[in-house]
Amino acid sequence: MKKISLAQMKAGHKGRISEILGGSNLASRLMNMGVYKGKEVLKLSHIGLRGPVVIKSGRSILALGHSIAAKVIIEVE
Amino acid sequence: MIKKIYLIGNPNVGKSVVFSRLTGVQVIASNYPGTTVEISKGYLQLGNEKIEVVDLPGTYSLESTSQAEEVAVSLLKEYPKTQIAVINILDSTNLERNLLLTLQLIEKGFPVVICLNMCDEAAHRGVRIDIEKLEKVLSVPVVSTCAVTGSGIKLLIERIKEAAPSLREKLPHEELWKEIGRIIEQVQHLEHRHHSIREILEDASVRPLTGLLMAAGVVYVSFKFVRFIAEGIINKITDPVFHDLYRPLLERLTLYWQEKGFWFHLLIGDLINGKIDFKQSLGVLTTAPYIEFGMVLPYVASFYFMLSLLEDIGYLPRLAILLDNILHRLGLHGYAIIPVLLGFGCNVPGILSTRVLESKRERFIASTIISIGVPCVPLQAMIFGLLGKFGGFYVGGVYLVLFSLILILGLILNRALTGYSPEFLLEIPPYRFPPLSMLGQKLYFRIKGFLIEAVPVVLIGVLAINILLYFRLFDIITGIFAPIINGIFGLPREAIVALVIGFLRKDVAVGMLIPLGLSAKQLFIAATLLAISFPCIATFIVLWKELGIRDLIKATLIMMLVSIAVGGVLNLTMAH
Q1: Total domains in the fold of chain A
Q2: For the domain B4-190, what is the CATH code?
Q3: Long-range CB contacts (< 8 A, 24+ apart) of B475-479?
Q4: Predicted ipTM?
Q5: What is the per-residue pLDDT across B490-510, written as a single tens digit (0 to 9) for each?
């Protein structure tokens, strides 16, 4: 088990969210969209070097700006 | 007694379609989040009573973390809970995420009816939901609908009066997602389906390489399609009507006109080689309707058709994530592509929709970029009509200059302005194929909006120009600005009239360049300047309203500097 951010994770990989850094506002915005601690997400792609990250969470597809993705910490195998 | 009905739901659940099914009021319904920030209201006939129905902005929760959510929450508090019914619309294909809002509504004690929308699509994607069980678990009425075809809507209306607060026990906020997980396990059954072509395309459009290829293809095809349809309409419909029906009619009229004085000048304009020339005569009855209906309207119609189609299919958010990288460097984020695209139709809705951007800084950058670097469809239509005959090089050149300007200006503004631009967080909806009737409705409203705004200004504008020309009042302005126009831009001094008219309407202004007999280079410079310099009066007023007077002055100064610089540079560097 290691912990990396969603921005560092490789596209095509799955992981479980262990923590969301930054203010509680970001955490609750993400939570309302179904992205919360303990949820398993699949990273679909990463557009460009510092571009947005596209993930699949449940049945939704979400795009997170790069600096938001860097605040979402994932536990991967 | 129900006094008001509220529609609430996540973005992209087909809420606006349900709304128009319930009320018969036609509203613009789009497939990207954020468009329904303006609230629509209508009436539903329920028994003998007419009850007001309010369509709340799309929201993920009742916690008000965004502007749209705040609006929704505050509207829900307008009436006591005993006097309202809340219709919670859910996307059946994504029940899990949608249930958060439902549980929150139930917890807060709102009388709720659940409308499980898009049931046909859910079935198609292998999602089966046990409606009766869901009803039992939540202890509120649940109706399955497909608003696009209208199925289930009747039942939904019948069950509105059953709306009552649920008797479920309250849960702490952290428990909500766990509870949702338990509910989903009981009521939802997923069948494994092979990836359909649609899903493969959905995936491909959010990956860097395939996404960019698709985006390039979509933009190219859209552009070609818009031109193809517009020119088809011009060649097959509007030109024959103007030349074969309208002109003979006008000519018969002029036969009875013995003395060609003031009124003749005003209504018909100048005869070119003894004949009415729709492009050059410049009369209120000749050039004014021809520019609007014969040259501009076909492009407006086909542009809005294409944009509405891309919107409703759900392609635009995908374009937004691909462009996020570039737009970030301009101090914006990917979502800003939507106001920019709307601006290509008309700057006014473009600037109005910068409201979807969160910070004042982003709104200033986006509005300035739109009003300087994004040419509206009427202007583009005229540029095609006029510069097209000199070859694609000149037309492409105008776009190249404007596109570079957007980049340079954005880079500079991003450096020069204080503050930061927030990151984006966006749900990417699945592709959906809009029913043609909804598309037609939207197109109708957009074209109607254009005509209401444009036609009076064009008629009054041409009238005003003619009066000023007749009394030779332009000569004064021409004298003052001649050094700039002639010295810096290399244009004949008469071109000042067109540039001034550009403040009223860009399309008429380009039309005024026709009789001047400009060279390709001069026409190129004049058209580019018209695109960059002062936006038309309608845009100007919207800028004022949206930005406030101080930022408006800032934007105007930037505009003037850029115009002089670009005009001068083009004049110096281009060969004749």
Answers
A1: 1
A2: 3.40.50.300
A3: none
A4: 0.93
A5: 999 888 888 888 888 888 889
Hey, are the CB atoms on B65 and A25 less than 8 Å from each other?
yes
Cα–Cα distance, B331 to B329 (Å, whole number): 5
| A7 vs A29: CA distance, rounded Å | 18
B423 Cα to chain A: minimum distance (Å):
5
Instruction: Check B207 against A68: CB less than 8 A apart.
Output: no
pTM of the model: 0.87
What percent of chain B is predicted at pLDDT more than 70?
A: 97
Average pLDDT on A4-13 reads 94
Model pLDDT for residues B104-147, shown as the tens digit of each residue: 999 889 999 999 999 998 998 899 999 999 999 999 999 999 98
Structural domain boundaries of chain B? 4-190, 209-573
Q: What is the mean pLDDT of residues B438-450?
A: 85
Tokens coding B340: 């920019």
Q: What is the CA radius of gyration of chain A?
A: 11
Quote the domain boundaries for residue A23.
Answer: 2-76
Q: Is B515 helix (H, G, I), strand (E, B) or coil?
A: helix
Q: How far off is chain A from B162, nearest CA to CA, in Å?
A: 28
| Predicted local distance difference test score (pLDDT) of residue B75 | 84
Indicate yes or no: CB of B177 within 8 angstroms of CB of A39: yes
List Cβ neighbours of B380 (8 Å cut-off, separation of 6 or more).
Answer: B299, B344
- Copy the structure tokens of residue B71: 């609006």
- Interface residue B97 vs chain A (CB under 8 A): yes
According to DSSP H, which parts of B256-359 are helical? 262-267, 287-289, 297-313, 316-329, 337-345, 347-352
Q: In this complex, do A58 and B97 lie within 8 Å of one another by their Cβ atoms? A: yes
Phi, psi of B391 (to 5 degrees): 110, 155
Which residues are CB-neighbours of B132 under 8 A, at least 6 positions away?
none
Looking at beta carbons, which residues of chain B come within 8 Å of A63? Answer: 206, 317, 320-321, 324, 334, 424-428
E strand map for B94-198: 112-117, 127-129, 142-144, 188-190
* Alpha carbon of residue B392 to chain centroid: 27
Using a CB-CB cut-off of 8 Å, the residues of chain A touching B322 are 47
